[in-house]
Amino acid sequence: MASGAHPGEAPSPLLVFETLWGYQRSAALRAAIELDVFRAVGEGPGDVASLARQCSASERGLRILCDYLTIIGLLSKEAGRYRHTPTSAMFLDPRSPACVASTARFLGNPAISEPFQHLADIVRSGRTTLAGQGSVEPENPVWVEFAHSMAPMMAPMCGPLGSIVLEGLAGPIRVLDIAAGHGLFGIEVAKQNPDARVDAVDWAPVLEVARTNARKAGVEDRYDMISGSAFEVDYGGPYDIVLLTNFLHHFDPPTCIALLKKVHTALKPGARAAALEFVPNDDRVSPPLAAGFSLTMLASTASGDAYTFRELESMYREAGFERISAHPVPTGPHTVVVGHAA
Amino acid sequence: MASGAHPGEAPSPLLVFETLWGYQRSAALRAAIELDVFRAVGEGPGDVASLARQCSASERGLRILCDYLTIIGLLSKEAGRYRHTPTSAMFLDPRSPACVASTARFLGNPAISEPFQHLADIVRSGRTTLAGQGSVEPENPVWVEFAHSMAPMMAPMCGPLGSIVLEGLAGPIRVLDIAAGHGLFGIEVAKQNPDARVDAVDWAPVLEVARTNARKAGVEDRYDMISGSAFEVDYGGPYDIVLLTNFLHHFDPPTCIALLKKVHTALKPGARAAALEFVPNDDRVSPPLAAGFSLTMLASTASGDAYTFRELESMYREAGFERISAHPVPTGPHTVVVGHAA
Q1: Most A CBs within 10 Å, among B66, B129, B285, B305, to test the A interface
Q2: What DSSP string runs through A81-113?
């Protein structure tokens, strides 16, 4: 059966209107996070007057916002009182350790969302309307925001990624974490292997966030930093593991291959390069979150994409890697693609 | 069971991320409509190169956009070719008489969508960030856009509305169509009753659209216009039917009651006032489209709302109406609320 085809489906304009109004869902959730509505709902008692007081908001506004959040499944309502759904309790109440509310700051950042106002122009030209290389323009401050606010989305994937890249490796190893961002992935490897040393590459202001996280995790003494562009800095090495998390999708295949070749020269023979990526199936329309990520790359970069495993495998091979394998991360929409230096 | 509650539901961050990315769905559909992608898909053959040529767009952009439309259920894809789903064929291909693509121009109009950029501020203050009375500020040009582009959303509801308001009425009647917009509702009444005369009230530039539609429908000789504010103009009369379509929701109850009282004075005894409205259930969180419309009124007006039948009934009563009844329209998200002049 064709992907996206629904042969038995009756035509309905509802999906069209819900899609045209989709921006309202994003706006409602962002507003609720900004107003700290999910904390107030968790604290109770959940009636409109109390919530309006807790959030310093009008009763009219608060009532309509909470009704809307209920309609889209992010709150529940009973006898005029709003309560958490299982999802909002775990992922939106700031008192929950799994809360991902901070990701709204990056996902709603104008550097990421603004180009969608000009999407028709972007489809015409085939590249972002942002200046230069778009979101990957050197020293773009959006990556400091990423490092600060996206950690809660990435955190659940750290454990599985660490296990995948460390499998069969023990004792003293050296790890290079390219485009480290919040640093959580490299830090996790250092936590899982107490003899691992990590070198993190990113823009200097971003590395400040990673350094703070390394300190919190107690691995600061095995954590070093190389500030600058991953395409320009000297990596040093040789390394046992190179991490490339959420990075390759910003660039076209020739650029990815050039980078992977540079990575290859910094690896010990047989060492591994691990990319954490949104990897769609060959049909490019499934699974939804990984495949849909292409649109973000279209909107915010000059030539990035969400690459299929076949495409990534071919880039790895061309850069001199072998034994290339895909490991879907069970706790997130990402896949870890591992290649070994020949 | 509480509305929106999903006691057995496992918590999942997916709904959170899909909601934060909801604006991308709107942007993708708007871009596709602007680029005439749905016409090109309907004409075939549907491969990326052909579509890019037909839409004067880049192949990269077109491919990623069509993949995304497939992911969100608005196209299908098989062996690299894009085809219509039943919904896109009927409601998005401009060659279909039921096409609603033009509604994107109103629903994406900055006067409607821009306030959602400031939704937290709006919830704080309880009113739109738009100047004055927001979308219902006198002579707001957005209503000319509404009259031009929203007709395809309203057209399927005209027939049922005409039958509801004309039930049991025959022979020469006079109809007042308040905030006529595209004029389709009054025109439909004139079509169903060849002895009906219609007076349409709206801002002059909006009435030009209604006049054109009356001419196309062949009822121009029974169609007159009263240009100006529904709150200020002299309605004349007395009328057998007054239509108030998509109007009351822009105002607070006292304003609605004042308007209904004015309407009452223009009616024959026993005559009917019919409001076409988004009418949520008493829980205010169902059905989704009608209940969710409150957020649009919060964002774009000073004090409007989607009113429950109970609330509308109470306004009608206070304005002197009796025998008030609700008639859900089977072909749309709206309900017709009819009251009779005492």
Answers
A1: B285
A2: EEE--HHHHHHT-TTSTT--TTHHHHHT-HHHH
**A64: three-class secondary structure by DSSP:** helix
Q: Which of A258, A210, A202, A246 is nearest to A337 (CA)?
A: A246
Query: For residue A248, what are its two tokens?
Result: 């390759």
Cα(A104)–Cα(A146) distance, rounded to whole angstroms? 10
Select the residue of A5, A26, A119 nearest B28 (Cβ to Cβ).
Answer: A119
Nearest CA to CA, how far is B100 from chain A (Å)? 8
Collect the ranges in chain A with pLDDT lower than 70.
Answer: 1-8
ipTM of the shown complex: 0.94
Percent of chain B with pLDDT over 70: 98
Contact A48, A80 (CB under 8 A): yes
Predicted pLDDT of residue A25: 97
The nearest CA of chain B is from the CA of A241 a distance in Å of 30
pLDDT digits (tens, 9 = 90+) for B15-35: 999 999 999 999 999 999 999
| Mean model confidence pLDDT for chain B | 94
| Chain B residues with beta carbon closer than 8 angstroms to that of A12 | 87, 91
Contact B222, B216 (CB under 8 A): no
Q: What is the pTM of this model?
A: 0.93
Q: Which two tokens stand for residue B186?
A: 């009054």
Cβ-based contacts of B61 with chain A (< 8 Å): 122-126, 298
Helix ranges (DSSP H) in A21-58: 22-34, 37-43, 48-54
User: What is the C-alpha separation between B337 and B328, in angstroms, rounded?
Assistant: 8
Say yes or no for a CB contact (<8 Å) between B292 and A123. Answer: no
pLDDT at B111: 82
Q: What is the pLDDT of residues B193-203, one digit of tens each?
A: 999 999 999 99
